[in-house]
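Hi support team,

I'm filing this because I wasn't sure whether my run with magnesium ion finished correctly. The job status page said complete, but I'd like someone to confirm that the output block is well-formed before I use it downstream. Pasting the exact inputs I used:
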Amino acid sequence: EDPTFTTSSSSQTGKAILLAAERLRSSDVPVAFPTETVYGLGADATRDEPVRNIFTIKGRPADNPLIVHIGSLKQARELLRPANASPTEQFEIPPIYKPLIDKFWPGPLTILLPLPPNSKLSPHVYATQTTVGVRMPAHPVALALALASNLPIAAPSANKSGLPSPTTAKHVAVDLYKRVELILDGGGCNVGLESTVVDGLSSPPAILRPGGVSLEQIRACEGWEGVIVHKEDGGNSGGGANGAASGAAPRAPGMKYKHYSPTCGVRLYLPNTDQPTVEMLKSTAFGSDSRVARLGVLRTRQWKELDDEQVEWLRERNVELVEDSLGTSGEEISRKLFGALRRMDDEQVVVVHIEGIEEDMEGLAVMNRLKKAASVVIRRRDV
Ligand code: TXA
Ligand code: MG
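And here is everything the job wrote out:
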């Protein structure tokens, strides 16, 4: 059966959210819902069976923990409550997070909270960790779902493991066709990249995954001036047989896996490298001598759109271009990135050439995702 679609523009939205909340409570099949970052695949974080199903449906490694979504600070505090605590006892979120919560919740920020003894969360949520990642999403549908269900919602991105995260309901349907029964359609995701994951329990505090809140924004908060960006072995090129990168274990287990990649090859050009010439483009369209090969080009700030003559030169050599601009602002590039990568696969591109950006502000998260997607990174030649 096809997944049920509901649109945020219709008057049915409220009903659809209530239906999804009911499914979260009673069904073992997770439901997909929009957030401002990417679409999530959600389940009641306290029940084993639906949480286990998330891993099966996505093809996700069991050691990669899930983020728990909450709709209020009260819900967040409940996650800190040990099983045997008296109902009147209050539990406080570690004070280091206060300035971040004040500024960025609801929003694209995930904080690590200590797991209480005998947590009521399903252990599949936190896997091998002693913490749980918690986020209050800003999308009205996601917030309403968390409040209407009154459940902590465990939800990874609603893509097949390894593919770019979904930023439209259609992306979810393509990846998880027949594996989910309900997708709440909230339109395109405004941020377009996943949340920033921060650990304020370690010293110094650390960013485990760059995302929708920038390093600069976090560093401006009291107590976070010395924040470090946790080093990971980024990129797929150095990865092991199954795509797991070598090197020290990353603090956010998800960061070690091959990620965000379309099926086609990705050549990422770092800033200050030259735009590839048509000859260089042609040389990457291997196997194109007898039949037409498709090449992708994704521009950002500097590259010029190819002119008719260049397009024709390539066409004569059996190369067709799928070209697009990701925009110039960091926000726009973030928003468009995953959809543009998915389009390359839809159009059966063999290799996409992508113009990278500087790694400041939104550029840090954009380049983190692109380096993971890239099969080849082109750096500036020493002169
Ligand atoms: O924007 C987002 O964060 C989206 C939306 C749906 O909220 N969710 C998302 O989830 O991106 P997922 O599962 O695709 O990525 C979660 C990341 C992984 O890298 C995971 O390893 C890390 O967060 N993570 C989750 N809980 C953790 C924990 N307790 N300790 C360390 N890392 C954790
Ligand atoms: Mg993901």
